[in-house]
Specification:
This protein has 188 residues and is an alpha/beta fold. Helix content is 47%, strand content 19%. The chain contains six helices and five strands; from the N terminus they run αβαβαααβββα. Strands 2-1-3-4-5 form a five-stranded mixed beta sheet, with helices on both faces. Helix 1 packs parallel to helix 6. It is globular, with a radius of gyration of 16 Å.
Length: 188
């Protein structure tokens, strides 16, 4: 293995290990509450769900994942309104919110993660350059804004990541899980 290949492999292994630690912490927190997680993923193509189900026993806290890569999938699988997609686009706050709420409505989970973005290397625009990712997390709440779900409070966030496609997707996975962990801990 060349030095560069060795360094890349070491960085990938380290990132995977950090994500595995996040998944374990998320799993522990969800199980403490008796909550289940669902994901609605576009730019990560199911990688968040994949990392979650890498952990043995994940069926105790991971309910299902939706890979909603196309606009049609966002509409058909998690109920994102076509008007939302037309007016705001797939990579937008309203779409991420609708994905998070739709994942909850179309599952038996109490907690959701939704991600939609431009991983690249193509597909970016002036307003939504490569590396733009919108996140939404749905967590149980009796006090937060409901945005149409009975008891879910949804937090959204826009991030701008750098690097190639793999780096953007890895950063998206890590940020989605890290923020979910913070939200879950804050709700206790």
């Amino acid at each position: 293995m060349t030095d560069t290949a060795s360094q890349t492999h070491a960085a990938s292994t380290s990132a995977h290990s950090a994500i595995a630690q996040l998944v374990t912490a998320v799993a522990d927190t969800l199980m403490q509450h008796g909550w289940m997680l669902t994901t609605a993923e576009s730019c990560t193509g199911g990688l968040i769900a994949g990392h979650c189900t890498d952990l043995a026993g994940s069926s105790q806290w991971f309910e299902r994942g939706f890979v909603t890569y196309s606009n049609e999938a966002k509409h058909d699988m998690v109920g994102v309104d076509n008007a939302t997609l037309t007016e705001h686009g797939a990579v937008s706050e309203p779409t991420a919110q609708a994905m998070a709420l739709g994942a909850l409505r179309h599952s038996r989970a109490q907690v959701s993660i939704a991600v939609t973005g431009v991983a690249g290397p193509t597909g970016g625009s002036k307003d939504k350059p490569v590396g733009t990712v919108w996140f939404a997390w749905g967590v149980p709440s009796d006090t937060g804004p409901t945005l149409g779900a009975e008891t879910a409070w949804v937090k959204t966030e826009r991030m701008q990541f750098t690097g190639d496609r793999a780096a953007v997707r890895q950063a998206t996975i890590a940020h989605a899980l890290q923020t979910l962990l913070q939200l879950l801990k804050a709700s206790t």
